Structures are given as structure tokens and as C-alpha cells.
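tl;dr need the bound structure. longer version: we got a ligand (NAI) that a collaborator sent over and nobodys looked at where it sits. i said id run it. heres the input, straight from their email, havent touched it
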Amino acid sequence: MSNPSLLILPGDGIGPEVMAEVRKIIDWYGAKRDLAFDVSEDLVGGCAYDKHGTPLHDDTMAKAQEVDAVLLGAVGGPKYDTLDFSVKPERGLLRLRKEMDLYANLRPAQCFDALADFSSLKKHVVAGLDIMIIRELTSGVYFGEPRGIFKEGNERVGINTQRYTESEIERVARSGFEMARKRGNKLCSMEKANVMESGVLWREVVQRIGDTEYPDVELSHMYADAGAMQLTRWPKQFDVIVTDNLFGDLLSDLAAMLTGSLGMLPSASLGAPMANGRPKALYEPVHGSAPDIAGQGKANPIACILSFAMALRYSFDKGDEATRLEKAVEKVLADGYRTADLLGEEGRSPVSTSQMGDAVIAALDASL
Ligand code: NAI
Ligand code: MG
């Protein structure tokens, strides 16, 4: 059998720096766990624009459709701010998501004990926190028609349309229930059925999928604004949350920040199953290209490393190895390794991007 395939798109800014650390970890799995990947690497974002005049070349797009998983660093930077909207670095990322039809965006919010003091909330509220937010990613108000800025009498009107079909709700609801079965068997669905018809349909469809296909999963519904309050008041009441594109954008950012730095946050975007039964998948850190620290060896590689751990779990059926990697990260943090973003006001000197990566490798070695 051939090795599982992985397309790596480091992108711009700190993307290549954090990805270099992931490459070390991928090599480690090949050498020490007999888990070799067919890795190919290509351009996305500003660097692709510089070379090809487009943020995502068709050949790269085609490759992304074929591989078992795509791992992306970050795109963008001030150099590209004045480019036309159609060729901006972000368009490369949006094209990947759209053409791979990645409708379920997985955003874990997990608090590592060593960083509990770093949260903006009290330690006992976040210590041990481990929740998963699933955001619908390919429909809703960011895509609905009609949209635009129109002239209406003497003034202009800006219009966006929240639109969800039953099948769009069904498939992301299933992602939520499947995730719940893999975790605490508890799913909370969030919308605003009190004021939005699309929310009424959302609630009805999620309930039906639950009743007919997942009666074993404990399902609850919450208005998204109440959800925001509950997430800040007592986030540990949740396990898996499923919600739409707009509310998911806000709630996943909110939940993520409960746990500390942007440099710690992984994500996965999953689509429909391929011929091999695995979902189409794109893994990426939540952060951007961080031009303010790019090229200085300051970036925290953990978000990208944890994104690879998600790939091990969700694309390669290697949950045990994903846990091994997450535990290695946990150990490194417990041992006091901190990149600059994890230090706040403390007077300690930070470790560099590559020192953090090396520490994770050493912790992986120690796990054998
Ligand atoms: P950003 O996430 O790049 O940076 C925000 C702040 O967090 C900066 O101070 C940065 O230094 C810090 N930071 C981010 N990641 C870090 C890490 N791994 N370690 C340590 N510190 C880290 O967001 P910003 O500044 O709004 O955007 C910068 C560029 O990135 C823009 O061109 C933007 O369009 C792009 N971007 C790309 C994304 C992606 O590729 N998915 C997502 C967000 C922004
Ligand atoms: Mg956001």
C-alpha cells in the first residue's frame, strides 16, 4: 500500500517558519513510528502570486483535490495589501475551501494546564477546558444572494442574505453528531431561531437528524447570543457545538481566546468523504502570516503542530499518534518552554521557533 499523501502549502510570513517545525515532526513519525507520508510542497498566497500572478495555481488546486490532506501555514502580508481583490493572497485560501467544498470547520478550544494563568478568565473556569466548535463554512450570510451595495432612492443600501438549504444544514449537523460520538456524546446547536427563519429551519433539521440518526447523542439547542454568554461564564458545560458560518466565526474566536494565544490554535476544515472514506481536508493554524514578527524566529509553531495532530486524527486514523503529539506539546509547556507570545509580562527570555520545535521532538522521543 502506498503511503498517505500530504500537500504542504507553507504560504507567506511566518507560514514557512512554523511549517519547518512541522516538517521535523513529520520526519520524526517516518523515522520513529514507521509512519511515512508522501509529502509534496507548493505555493499559496502572496508567494504564489509573485511566481504565477495568481494566489493559487490550477496545478496546485488539482493536487489539493488528490491528496489525503492539505496542511497550510498562512497567507498574506502588507506587500500584497494594494493588490486587486481578485488576486489577493486570501483568495487562494478561499478557493481551496470552496473547490474542495470544505463545509465543516473544526475549531478546538483546549486549555493546557501550564497556560491556564494566561487566560483572560479565572483559572478554575478554563483549567481542563476541552471543547470543539464546528462552524458551517461554505454557506450562510457570507455567500447568500442577493448581496451587494445598491442604490435605493436617495441613499445606498448594503445587503447580505442569510440562506441555508436543508441539505447544507443536514451535512454539517452530521459532522457535529459524528464528532459528539467520538467525544462526550453531547452536542449543542446554536442559532437564533427566535428572530431568524433560517434559524428556525436550522433547529428543526438538526433536531430531525438527531432523532432519526443519532438518538444516542444528547442534543440541546441554544440561541447564539446566550451561547456567547455561557461560553464566557462556564465554558466547561459544553463539549461539541455546531453552528452556522456567521455565529461560528464569532463564537469560535471567542472560545479560542479563552485558552490563550493565537499561536496555540489549530483548525481543520473537512468536506465530503473521498473514495477512501476519509473526508477532504485542509488543516491550518488559526493565525495569519504575522508580518510584525516574520523572519525573526519568534513565531510560535504550536498552532501549526497541533493542526498536524488534527490531521493524524481526522485524516489518517492515527488518534493514538495525535494524542502522543498533543501530550508532547503539553509536556514542553509544562517544562516551561515559552515562545514570546506566551510570556506576557514575565521577565523570562523566550525560546525561538526552532527551539520550540526541537523541544517537541525531544518530548516525542521521550514518549517512546
Ligand atoms: P495575525 O494572526 O497574522 O497576527 C495577529 C497578532 O498575533 C500579531 O501580533 C502576530 O505577531 C501574533 N501572532 C500570530 N500568530 C502568531 C504565532 N504563531 N506566534 C506568535 N505570535 C503570533 O493577524 P493579522 O496581523 O491581522 O494579519 C496579518 C496578515 O495575515 C494579513 O495579511 C492577513 O490578511 C493575514 N491573515 C491570514 C490568515 C490565514 O492565512 N488563514 C488568517 C488571518 C490573517
Ligand atoms: Mg474570524
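gonna send this back to them w/ a short note. The chain is about 40% helix and 20% strand.
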